[in-house]
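Lab notebook, bench 4. The sequencing result for the construct came back, and we need a structural model before the next group meeting so we can plan mutations. Quick request posted to the team channel:

Model the 3D structure of this chain.
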Amino acid sequence: MNIFQEIKERLTLQEIVRAYGIELNRNDMCICPFHAEKTPSMKIYEKGFRCYGCGESGDTIEFVRKFFNLNNTLEAAHKINEDFGLGIQTDKRPTKSEVVSAQKIVQQRIEFEQRDKQAFFVFAEYFKVLQDYSKLRPESEYEVPDKRFVEYLQNFERLDYVMNRQIELLHNPMNERIAFLDDNQEYISNIAERLLEIRHEKEVVRETPAAEQTAKNIPPEQKTENKAQTAAQVGGYKIIGNTAYKNIRDKAYLKYSSALSPQIADRLDKTGIKFSGKSTSKMTTFTINKHDLESVRAIAADEAKKFTGRNKPQIIPSQKQMTAGIKRQSQSNEMTL
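Done. Here's the predicted structure in token form:
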């Protein structure tokens, strides 16, 4: 049994955090020491921890390492051994193979913790979304349910189960927790894609605050079966582009006058640059990949130059200038007579 295993066998994490001055409530919750907060969001288990605010998690040794900002878990183990007077012998130097094996395990744990934290944040964000959607329950059995409420009904039970399962596995061996993430990787990716769509929908709503009212005012005979066209009518904008918004990675955004947007869109399409856009009567937002930023800016500048050349502004005289001109013409006529 090594020093890490022996510490976990002889001490619980609850005992350790209390000894280091951290107060636990009756549910073994505490103020997270790794981010600023006023309400306890960190759960302390017998052999590990999880913060539901910032996502930090790990085992007993990892908590002490982070709490005291130590370089590695071995330093943390030695500190626990000394502070609690456990008397675990640490004089024996590890062999080269033991060091390599330990380093490999540490690297695997770092990579795993990152995956586990990302999955936790995806689950937590979607859980909050579905909770909001649950409030859209129809007021009567005859009312057509909101599609977001239907999404809540279809997804909440599974999400709740998966989140609880992730928490239950917190104290299990790392290989079991990795297997859990592997088994649910496709599910996690699907939720992440859905969250991107939801964020995009919220952006559209912020830009078109009258969208919902507009939808109510559209006469039934004017509605179309074409979903894209319906979205354009309801939201007060129209979608342009050669690529779905959710399929554009590492997104960047550029806004141009809608008078220029058709020419820019045509050039981007011919050049093969992937883009998605939403166009209102005044402005068009182009969503592109960040590595295409300079190319799109150059195309837009070129099209703006052409547009200005074709549409040179006419100088319209003011009323005062017109009156003065008429008066001078009248005086000239009188002198001729």
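Strands lie at 29-30, 42-44, 48-51, 57-59, 238-241, 251-257, 275-279, 283-289.
Will bring this to the meeting.
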